[in-house]
Amino acid sequence: MSRNRRPIIRLAAAALAVAVLAACGGGGSSSDTSSADGSNPAVPGQGDGVNYPLSGLPIEDKAAAARPALTAKIDNHPAARPQTGLNKADIVFEENVEALTRFAAVFHSQGSDPVGPLRSGRTQDIDILGSFNKPLFAWSGGNYRVTRAISNSDLVNVGYSASRGKGGYYRAKDKKIPHNLYAKTTDLWTLAPKEAVPPQPQFTYRGSSDAKPATSTAVDGAKVSMYNVKVYWKWDAATSNFVRFTENLKRELEPHMADDGQVNTKNVLVLYVTYVRSKADRKSPNALTVGKGTGFVMTDGGLIPINWVRPNRLVPFTLTDANGAVVRMTPGRTWVELAWKNSLAPVGPGIDPKTVKFPAV
């Protein structure tokens, strides 16, 4: 059995270690400027009514800034592409699921009408999204164990069934079931509870006067191996974005297209996490996103090795560099790869990406 197709049975010791770390809630080094609970520090201009909390960009729509976050579970099967809304989400998590990946696209500063194709959720979404202040959760549904877990969590279930026809869900005619379910974020936001609040900031952002950290190394991009999905994020200096390529069935890299062009982002955060079997669905992996780990931040054409810590699901990840300083992102959209350890291979400036192999995971 190839390592890419191995069963998602992680070593009990690894799971136990992460669980212990989660319980301990360890902090950063002495030079870490994060707050005592491990959450990101309050920074002027971030989530303070001046900038959008999830992107760090200036607020252009006060009504949008006041609404809750909305997460849509978007399909990443080849038959689902091009997806709609990936370039409008403030933050996108790419999760390993059984034999492929799936996206949890978090919308706040802007929406997408339509958004999709939408697929089922996973129990790992409950921890991943816990720091967004009870976000709305749009999905196609799941088995009864997953559905019960989602419904009993603090995620606000506005899924296909739970929305009772009010979420703008419909089946598109240009794709086949199950890769053709869409909804409208405009309709989904109307289902928010009266007590819903905006999300808290998830990252710290660079100001115009902030220099790149000394730990940043210039890169042309990086290759990341997910579950049977190989991703190449390439730095595009002309647009100051990282653009996404994926490997097709011929093992050739091709642009990953969304409804409005190639998938792109200002920041790529690769978090090395442990996956264990989900108790609600034994075929599906479950990412452990509470505890400690390592990874990388790609921002402004540079690659920064990081340590991450998250003492509980209700606070964001704190990201620090080798010097213990909190890593500052470029204001704008961010993609988060919830990846296995050692699954990133950097591509240096001037290096032909064809000569850099995807890591075996």
- The number of helices is 5
> What is the H-and-E element order?
HHEEEHEHEEEHEEEEEEEEEEEEEEEEEE
**Number of discrete domains:** 1
Instruction: Kindly provide the radius of gyration, computed on alpha-carbon positions and rounded to a whole number of angstroms.
Output: 19 Å
Any key phrases for this structure?
361 residues; YerB-like fold; single chain; 6-stranded antiparallel β-sheet; 11-stranded mixed β-sheet; globular
Descriptive overview:
By secondary structure, this protein is mainly beta. It has a single domain (1-361), classed as YerB-like (YerB-like fold, 3-Layer(bba) Sandwich). 10% of the residues lie in helices and 30% in strands. It is built from 5 helices and 25 strands. The strands form 6 sheets. Strands 1, 2, 3, 4, 5, 9, 17, 20, 21, 22 and 24 form an 11-stranded mixed beta sheet that branches. Strands 10, 11, 12, 13, 16 and 25 form a 6-stranded antiparallel beta sheet that branches. Strand 21 (302-310) and strand 22 form a beta hairpin.
Give me the secondary-structure topology:
Blueprint: H1 12-24, H2 62-66, E1 70-75, E2 91-96, E3 101-107, H3 124-128, E4 136-138, H4 144-151, E5 156-157, E6 170-171, E7 181-182, H5 185-189, E8 204-205, E9 217-218, E10 221-225, E11 230-236, E12 241-247, E13 253-255, E14 257-258, E15 261-262, E16 264-265, E17 267-272, E18 274-277, E19 285-288, E20 291-299, E21 302-310, E22 318-320, E23 328-329, E24 334-339, E25 344-347
Parallel strand pairs: 1-4, 2-24, 4-5, 8-23, 17-24
Antiparallel strand pairs: 1-3, 2-3, 6-7, 9-21, 10-11, 10-25, 11-12, 12-13, 12-16, 14-15, 17-20, 18-19, 20-21, 21-22
